[in-house]
């Protein structure tokens, strides 16, 4: 593992292989926490039913970006929305199909890349994602432009990502993860690679300012950045997310933006 430049195509290849291979174990580890038909925004446990970041979704056409097993879309369907869920990984979409069978709640599933969406202009009222696609693409500006294109004027885009300040720490939920070791300003992606040097996992960093600029350059109006606090009594770890760190600094940033009318 290390830090080195990786472009869009190599990031896409790495993500597709990684999430295909990891789909079953990701669901085994996190599926219970995420629920079969629930909308959980982040490891802090903030749910859409308590946060209401998407507004009233009844009758709305909602695009779930990087949906994984699509639990958010099944929750949305149960609220009376018309979700479409897409993901790069066939393995993750397989988990979504399995969950549809378990729950009896079926939503349209599409295999697609967030940098080039196969949807018509102005075809959704809302787009949303909990940690899907955005942290894994080399060109998040392209994702912002594509989401803007497929939203109708007045539409809303809400996405959760790892809080940019986490980049400065080791990926460790314990004491070692409290010490700043990396520059916040170094955008070189985090890469794991195989013995031939081919990237197998890539995560791309953007500062808070970069995220705002990507949104505004695409045409969005930013209305909020939510930084969920770690709730008292919540003891569950998720990778580097832990109560120890969560009590001291944010782990998630949720950007709320609108396409102007
Ligand atoms: C951390 S998972 C989040 C999934 C789901 N939202 C959840 O909360 O479990 C990240 C997801 O983003 C997807 N992804 C990564 N790069 C993508 C891309 N370029 N386009 C679409 N999906 C992508 C992965 O396949 C994976 O399912």
From TrEMBL:
Coiled coil: none annotated. The keyword Cell cycle does not apply. Keywords: Methyltransferase, Transferase. Pfam families: Methyltransf_11. Transmembrane segments: none annotated. Gene3D superfamilies: Vaccinia Virus protein VP39 (3.40.50.150). Signal peptide: none annotated. Residues 63-159 form the Methyltransferase type domain. The keyword Methyltransferase applies. PANTHER family: METHYLTRANSFERASE (PTHR42912), N6-ADENOSINE-METHYLTRANSFERASE TMT1A (PTHR42912:SF93). This is SAM-dependent methyltransferase.
